Amino acid sequence: MSFDTADALKDYATAGVSRHDLCFTSATPDALANLRSALGRSRVGVRVVLAGPPADVHAAASVAAECGLVDEEMTLRCNEVGPRVIFCGHCHTSTTTDHPIGTNVDCQGCGTTLTFTDHFSRRVGGYLGFSAHAEEAA
Ligand SMILES: [Zn+2]
Fold first, then answer.
1. Whole-model pTM?
2. What pLDDT was estimated at residue 138?
3. What is the mean pLDDT of residues 48-54?
4. 34 CA distance to ligand 1 middle (Å)
5. Which pLDDT score is estimated for 7?
6. CA of 46 to the centre of ligand 1 (A)
7. Is 85 exposed, middle or buried (0-12, 13-18, 19+ CB in 10 A)?
8. How far is CA 12 from CA 22, 64, 66, 81, in A?
């Protein structure tokens, strides 16, 4: 399943295993429902490759996880650039940003300046953000 870039999966060799390509412009509810039904039809041993912007890949990964797939059955190929979801540790609002890892972003919920690392949380479906000024305030 790929988002945005139709060619993202072309170079991914499946070695004769039957494959089912899904391509969407973004992780819309329709696209995720499509993924859900495709996984529902697939047999045990299915492998899922998700490619595209991190926010879309992670949204799709959480759907796949709901369908019972484990980490070993998923390959996530996130674009280096593209929107990421930052989960605010203070007010639990998800903020989507184009900023690269290691920079700051203002939370859309509480306005706190959040910094985030590459620590991705499957549980909340985003990168964990924490106050950039926490150490100074403490
Ligand atoms: Zn917040």
1. 0.56
2. 44
3. 84
4. 32
5. 53
6. 37
7. buried
8. 14, 19, 24, 20
